[in-house]
Amino acid sequence: MNAELQWSSRASVISATKKCDQIWAELLRIQQFGFDLIENSNIYWKYFPFVRMVRNGLLGQETRSKERGNSMSANAIEMRRRLFLKSLGAAAVAGTMSSSFAQLKVDILGVGANQFPIAIPAFIGNEGAPENIAEIVGNDLVRSGAFRLVDGPVPTSYDMTPEWSKISAVGAGAYVIGEVKKTPDGRYDLQFRLFDPVKRQETDEANFVCAKDDLRLYAHKIADRIFERLTGEKGDFASRIAYVAQQGRKSFAIMVADSDGHNPQAALRSKEPIISIAWSPNGRQIAYTTFETGKPTVWIHDLSTGKRRQVAGFRGNNSAPAFSPDGNTLAVALSKGGITKIYLMNVNGQNVRPFTEGSSIDTEPAFSPDGQYIYFTSDRGGNPQIYRKPVGGGSAERVSFGNAYAVSPAVSPKNDQLAYIVRSGGTFQLVQQDLATGNVIPLSQVGKNESPSYSPNGNMIIYAAEVGGKGVLSTVSTDGSAKSRLSGLSGDIREPAWGPTIS
């Protein structure tokens, strides 16, 4: 067996998955065939906190010795697995929790080739507001890859007739006049007018009244409205992302932020690792896997109340939750039968039933937006690939071809594309496959890329990458032309999930 991670019995592993039993299987592989193998595997960077803990001796010096024996008793395997889980918990408990995580910033790395020019001068009266509304709206539109900003004339009043000649001179295809007014009760009234300089007419107008803390949200809603008016597609800037932020080896948090990474709030802080975040369809809850009980268990967390409940804590490993489109069913990866398979359950944790069968490792379930299929990662063909199986019953069919390694499926909300991670040499790349034609295009540079998640309208993908040895979040348009990076000032950022649009 070599660094290509060929699959076999107990030591086989889907290296890019988010599952503890796969982590454990990889550690067994390291133990049997040399620790240096991990340097060439996805597990090294995807699960760096676990790897570092192992390298720091939590499993003993034997882990770093290059043992070559290929036979281990079931009892020995189970004992070492338990030691591994125990070590994770002990290391986490010994840590201290950081008081805060850094605000993210957005770096525009590239834009689309055919952007629509739009002028969005500063909103009238914005000087006294804590947020720059025009800047937020403009950055949203640019991040989509569909627009570019041009300098237009600054309006002198909200009701004025635009200076058409000046707008035409800068080449603007659309022009915005906006105003911010503080109301007597301390809230803010945001209003805007959208103009077509070619037709010399107003095409849209709206106003929103909001609290101070909601200014960014409603700026995103203005961007959504402009985006829909000019493209015919719904915008999704007024949405949220969730991700795991880590500082050191002993401090983890689930952060929820605006779609542009601003205004991050901690939904959960923990001394134990957190992986596999999934949003409920209504955006009110998230599911995730935590190690806080000494083994991986699945929880559902209500974001408005902070209350949470454990829904999967069976013997073995419980991980990779995914909500059905109607929000009533949860797909999870469980090893309670010995081998990790996909199970379905009600969102309250009841009515657990198997979805996949056989001797293969099946994990990373993802529902299609119509609820007809579950896509998942499996080694049933020898190497990890993407498969799908009808929810109503039937046989699984392979979906990914052309690469020896494909993991972490994410289905577009439009139900026409599939994003996943492929291995290219010793690195990992985000690709997208057209489900009708099978054509595959790369969406990222080769590197340490993982965990793709589509935006609500299916036009963007967020994923985790590594830059300068630190985890960051990146976004890319589905045609690959527009790219941006949400980079933190400190800490490692992993496991992103893009939530639904906020109504």
List keywords for this structure.
503 residues; alpha+beta; Rossmann fold; Neuraminidase; 5-stranded antiparallel sheet; 5-stranded mixed sheet; 7 helices; 17% helix; globular; disordered N terminus
The amount of helix comes to 10-25%
What CATH architecture of the domain at 273-399 do you see? 6 Propeller
Question: Main beta sheet, described?
Answer: 5 strands, antiparallel
What would the principal axes of the Cα set say about the shape?
globular
Q: Determine the structural class based on helices, strands and strand pairing.
A: alpha+beta
Summed up, the helix count is 7
| Strand adjacency order, main sheet | 1-29-28-27-26
CATH homologous superfamily title of the domain at 273-399 = TolB, C-terminal domain
CATH topology of the domain at 273-399: Neuraminidase
**What fraction strand?**
35-45%
Low-confidence stretches: 1-22, 24-103
Q: Give average pLDDT, whole number.
A: 82
Q: What is the C-level CATH assignment of the domain at 273-399?
A: Mainly Beta
The number of distinct β-strands equals 30
The rounded Rg comes to 24 Å
Distance separating the two termini: 52 Å
Structure write-up:
Strands 1-29-28-27-26 form a five-stranded antiparallel beta sheet, with no helix packed on it. A five-stranded mixed beta sheet has the order 3-2-4-5-6, with helices on one face. It has a four-stranded antiparallel beta sheet with strand order 9-8-7-30. The chain is α+β, with helices and mostly antiparallel strands and 503 residues long. It is globular and about 70 Å long. It contains seven helices and 30 strands. Helices cover 17% and strands 37% of the residues. The longest helix has 20 residues, at 74-93. It has helices at 20-33, 42-46, 48-58, 74-93, 133-143, 164-169, 215-231; strands at residues 104-110, 116-119, 147-149, 174-182, 188-196, 201-210, 239-246, 252-258, 265-270, 274-279, 285-290, 297-302, 308-312, 318-323, 329-334, 341-346, 353-354, 362-367, 373-378, 385-390, 397-398, 406-411, 417-424, 427-434, 440-442, 450-454, 460-467, 470-477, 483-488, 492-501. Among the domains are: 9-93, no CATH class; 111-231, Rossmann fold (3-Layer(aba) Sandwich), CATH 3.40.50.10070; 273-399, TolB, C-terminal domain (Neuraminidase). A hairpin with a 2-residue loop joins strand 27 and strand 28 (470-477). Helix 3 (48-58) packs across helix 4 (74-93).
